[in-house]
Amino acid sequence: MGKRQRKVVANNKKARHDYFIEDTYEAGIVLTGTEIKSVRAGRVSIKESYAKIQNGEVILLGMNISPYEQGNRFNTDPLRPRKLLLHKKEIGKLLGLTTQQGLTLVPLQMYINEEGRAKIELAVARGKKNYDKRETLAKKDAQRKMEQAMKRR
User: What whole-number distance in Å separates Cα of residue 42 and Cα of residue 82?
Assistant: First the structure.
């Protein structure tokens, strides 16, 4: 039996555009049976999602997992809040960062790891202003032009 590879199911490109990424954490996620089947089929969207800490637990809000086609009555609400699994020390650290420093918890990507478990890459992020976004785009454009000039040589 061969080794499995890490399979990226959903990516949040908008997060890197809208936020400065300070730190990242890997978190497990609590799913039902039909939800994990939809995740493995790639029917997930994390574009508008974010995480909050409530009662000592990290809750992911706004993530859309489309209902599984053969799930009938076992399907759950696609936008329901989902619990993320982190160590108590990590949750305490995240709580301090989000309350005192005004940072946000944003998922960057969702993937199935080598053991077949669904994981979320959660980022501690600081919001960008419009001028920061323009500056980032200008840097990318300049880098691309330099690379094209080097290829022509």
Answer: 17
Q: Retrieve residue 58's tokens.
A: 């990290």
Query: In this predicted model, what pLDDT tens digit does every residue of 28-82 receive, in sequence order?
Result: 999 988 888 889 988 999 999 999 999 999 999 999 998 888 877 777 888 899 9
d(CA 125, CA 98): 9
Whole-prediction pTM: 0.80
Q: In this structure, what are the phi and psi dihedrals at residue 36, rounded to the nearest 5 degrees?
A: -65, -30
What is the reported pLDDT for 81?
Answer: 93
Contact (CB, 8 A) for 95 and 54: no
- Encode 21-58 in three state secondary structure: EEEEEEEEECCCHHHHHHHHCCCEECCCCEEEEECCEE
- Amino acid, res. 144: R
- Amino acid identity for residue 88 in this structure: K
Q: How far is CA 65 from the centre of its chain?
A: 13
**What pLDDT, on the 0 to 100 scale, is given for residue 133?**
84
Torsional sign, CA 68, 72, 76, 79: positive
